[in-house]
Amino acid sequence: MGRATPDRSPDVLTRVAAGVVVPVVAVAAHGIGGGSVPGSAGVLLSGGIGALVALVLGSQRRRSATAATLSTAGLLTLAQIASHLSLMAVQTPSAAMHHDALLPMLLTHLIAIPLSAGLIVAAAGLLRALTSTVRCLFPPPRFAASPPVVPVRWVAPYLYTGVVVGGVGVRGPPALP
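User: That's the sequence. What structure does it adopt?
Assistant: Structure tokens below.
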């Protein structure tokens, strides 16, 4: 068997979860702050920012839980700022936010971002522990080694056809005139 490939499922879980959390938290906080759900253009922009976060978020495999949580929270904070700006840019004038609703929106962001980052890192660590445990309990099957392949050299058989006395045709020296 060759070298074991590292399990990438915790990294995939981290990226997908961060990509999903960005638009969900942005729309929820913006909805709390404005009292209404943003338009489809804002949700689409926020989803694009979430996809960008999923692409940018690196592997958290070799980091401590604290460092991974802090880096994820920092990236989610930047994404929330960008999502907030994009939601405000496409907002219609009739759906303008009230100044007294900014505090609930800010509190929603302040609670949701660190909580989301901690849950994402914890879920990735739990998935990593679960997959390594399953791999230890159920190792991949080892197949019997096949014998080494020896190259075969093929030699054309010698076919004895007997003595050839004459042949068919008129081959011979040229005729003299």
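The two ends are 82 Å apart (CA to CA).
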